[in-house]
Design a protein that fits this description.
It is a single chain. The longest helix has 17 residues, at 218-234. This protein has helices spanning 4-15, 22-37, 63-77, 81-93, 109-121, 127-139, 167-180, 187-191, 195-208, 218-234, and strands at 50-53, 56-59. The chain is built from ten helices and two strands; from the N terminus they run ααββαααααααα. The protein has two domains: 4-44 and 160-234, no CATH class; 50-139, no CATH class. The protein is mainly α and 239 residues long. Strand 1 and strand 2 (56-59) form a beta hairpin.
Length: 239
């Protein structure tokens, strides 16, 4: 059986001059079918998570907050566990504020430290409450539970050693897909969404295009996007 979304992407690739190998076509089609048949109910959208530290909201990471962590905070404090945790907490507290991470104050470590210091001094909640709220925002556990899982390690596959696609590549691909779909969302609107919300919007768009993805899920979409990006890179195609 052929995947509708894979057929469209394969046609686009071939139209761009790619001579796809049978294995590339088979793999992309299989992942496209996985998206269209995935077991989770994609029509049911969970609201983005919010952890509360007293009256302070700590939001589930959005695309813009994740990009800032990856591009800046990880480079500045990636080897310092306490510092990177503080940066992640600060980023999640402001994850939904449009344009927040593009401000000059967020582009140097000195100014960010001053921003974090002022924010932290303004809080009335405890450090324990902040950590509890952050864990809920990140991992979605019961807010009354004291147990939080570690971030899930990336599952290894037989092609893992060949797949150098980064999380940032996947995010950029999803953003480009949303822009190309003509959904009427600005870049700031898109970056203020969580990844799961963005994928949900793309699923709705695919359904409107006749692709039966009512049961697709985040993991299946990420696998498909990752593979499509890798194929494009292998053939020298840039989005």
């Amino acid at each position: 059986m052929l995947s509708k979304m894979a057929i469209e992407d394969i046609e686009d690739l071939e139209g761009a001059g790619c001579n796809l190998s049978p294995s590339e076509i088979i793999r992309l089609n299989a992942l496209g079918l996985k998206v269209e048949r995935a077991s989770n109910a994609g029509d049911i959208l969970a609201a983005p998570r919010i952890g509360w530290a007293g009256d302070v909201p700590i939001y589930e990471p959005t695309i813009q907050s994740e990009q800032w962590i990856d591009i800046y905070a990880q480079r500045w404090w990636g080897d310092n566990g306490d510092a990177i945790t503080s940066a992640l907490l600060f980023a999640c507290a402001h994850a939904r504020f449009k344009g927040f991470f593009a401000r000059p104050e967020m582009l140097t470590p000195e100014s960010v430290c001053e921003e974090m210091r002022k924010w932290h001094q303004s809080l009335t909640c405890t450090e324990a409450q902040l950590q509890h709220a952050l864990a809920f925002a990140l991992f979605g556990n019961d807010a009354n539970s004291r147990e939080y899982p570690e971030p899930r390690e990336t599952e290894e596959t037989e092609d893992a050693e060949e797949d150098e696609t980064s999380t940032e590549d996947i995010r950029e691909y999803a953003i480009n897909e949303a822009i190309a779909a003509g959904l009427g969302l600005s870049i700031e609107d898109i970056k203020g969404l969580t990844q799961s919300r963005l994928y949900s919007i793309l699923r709705a768009y695919h359904r409107n295009q006749g692709i039966d993805s009512k049961a697709s899920n985040l993991s299946a979409h990420a696998d498909y996007f990752r593979t499509l990006i890798a194929i494009k890179k292998a053939h020298g195609i840039k989005d």
